[in-house]
Amino acid sequence: MLKTKRWITILCAALLTISVTAPAQDAQRQTAAINTGAQEVLIIIQPQHVRFAAPPAMEQMHLQVTNPAGETVFDSGGVSVLEIFWPLHDANNAPLKSGLYAYRLTVKTAQDKEPRVQRGHFIVDRAQDRDGSDRLWVTSRNDNGVGAELTVAKQEDTTVAGTRTPGKNKKDKTANAAEEIVDGEAVRSLNGLTDHLKLTGGQNVSVTSEGDTVTINAQLGDGQAVKSVNGLTDQITLEAGPNITITPDGNKLTIAATGAGNSSLTEVNGNIGIGVANPLVKLHVSSSEILPLRAQSTSAASFAAGWDFYHGTTGKGYVGAPGSATSIAPGEMLVYAAPGTKTSLWAGGVRGLTVDTNGHVGIGTASPFGELHLHGYGPVITLSTTAGKRAYIQNVGGNMVFKPHGFGECCSAFTLKPYNGFAEFKGLAGPHEVQITSANDRAYLKLNSLLNGQRGTWSVESGIYGRPGWFGIYDWEAKRGRLAIDPTGLVYVDALRITGGADFAEHFDVNTSATASTSSIAAGMVVSIDAANPGKLALSHQAYDRRVAGIISGAGGVKPGMMMGQTGTLADGQHPVALSGRVYVWVDAARGAVNPGDLLTSSATPGHAMKAAHASRAQGAIIGKAMTGLKQGKGLVLVLVTLQ
Length: 644
Known about the structure:
Blueprint: H1 5-12, E1 16-19, H2 27-34, E2 41-45, E3 50-53, E4 58-66, E5 72-75, E6 83-86, E7 99-109, E8 116-125, H3 128-131, E9 135-140, E10 150-153, E11 189-190, E12 193-194, E13 205-210, E14 213-218, E15 228-229, E16 232-233, E17 244-249, E18 252-257, E19 265-268, E20 271-274, E21 283-285, E22 306-311, E23 314-320, E24 334-337, E25 343-347, E26 350-355, E27 361-363, E28 372-374, E29 381-384, E30 390-396, E31 399-403, E32 414-417, E33 422-427, E34 430-431, E35 444-451, E36 454-462, E37 471-475, E38 480-485, E39 491-493, E40 503-508, E41 510-511, E42 526-529, E43 537-539, E44 548-552, E45 562-564, E46 575-588, E47 599-602, E48 609-611, H4 615-618, E49 622-626, E50 634-642
Parallel strand pairs: 2-10, 20-21, 27-28, 40-45, 41-43
Antiparallel strand pairs: 1-9, 2-3, 3-6, 4-5, 4-7, 7-8, 8-9, 11-12, 13-14, 15-16, 17-18, 19-20, 22-23, 23-24, 25-26, 26-27, 29-30, 30-31, 31-32, 32-33, 33-34, 35-36, 36-37, 37-38, 38-39, 40-46, 42-43, 42-44, 44-46, 46-50, 47-48, 47-49, 49-50
């Protein structure tokens, strides 16, 4: 039903219907046929665009078109050309949809002091599928038709509507582009209809007028069926199918579903059953097939392949497989508890495992203390072999007991007593703080090795050489002592090189292929374990490198006090690397000034240390503790080497 003054204005005063399939003609014919007024702007509708053409006297035009939401779909900007083409596309270059579009045309001639504005509407009707052609209406807000300076043509040699040229005979149709619409007179041309238009009501359609308003109303008669719905014609009969009811009540028709019919889905008292006729719970699934239930998502950022669990409106957890682009456990199988919720695993009615809200894991306890908490008197850890051999680790009275069988502290092979600091190896003779025995009941430790094809055997013992109070290392292959400590504390060795210095160093080869040339290796530089060359080091070039090994000794005039190495083996090299003691190290203070007492770690500057500002990242990457400072730049800092 149309019932507004705006629509009757469109229908009865200034509505022009133009088929967008009208053929285009050449510009010369258009100018000759249409340009009847010196100040006239022509609107020419062609199959692919609308063209606004101005007379030569026009200095500037500006066309803006907006959709019903007020959004701009076309803006030509101010142009000095005499033509503006609008391709009937929106701002995204997509064809316009059916609807009402407002236009604002601003024009200015040399005689105009200020620009003049013409407003109106385009009504786009995409009727190709319905009527065989699309249509376009052009309207004006003027009371006297299209407007004093607007002409509309559906092809370039024919004018549909416009202004009567002053001084011409109204009936001279060859001289006038179009006649002015007389008050109360219908549009002269509408979709091929000419002369006066008359609106006549048909079957079930009434046309009434009241003042300036015309009302068109369509109504079905009582009991009358719709004549055409989706290709169905004449009367339509609605028939109920399985589990569908159709209930008429006056002018109301109720269509309802009752159950699932022959499907495997049933509903009883609000319980849903799949494969079961009488579901006992909210969702009851029964199947003799081997196919399991499946939760599946199609988005990498989705949690849809899983189940959410709630208490009332409070989320408690989730079990599922998040997508590969989710923020939590991407691509993993996830058991997730909401903040403040524990997760536990029970078997046989007994709590087996608990993960608390801090991520601590408890076995046998609901309140784990520490990252892993095992509770119980029996063997808390059992180690077994495929041959059935077992070893047990258990807590007995606060002591950690390692034993081959049974329970308790009796017959343990090794006991750690954290409360008094004792470590106890037990033999048949009874307990001792640390017991290492031999056949003659002396404290005795024998070491064997095979080096370069030759066997070497050494012993570490007390009471060597028949001298009470002595302790030594004896080479059984060479039949001679290698180290001895007498009762006064003097140490006897084959060779001990101490030439003065303040650090303990070992010799290493340093690889420079990844960072610098051989000539750039200097005393005081930080080195790390070279993963590509076993037994060798490389200049450190990574911040917080946990492979950091030490500092090349000798910088700042402080030499190593003890150097170790074994010639001809991987445990040798050209550079003494300080592993302990005091040594100067090169430091880059770009990441922060270094003060005495600061922990130092490796930096991204090859061979340089820096202040360890992040404690968590520095674990395992500490070189030592600064004993002098460096405010800025690069320089040497005395460090107490304490590799951590």
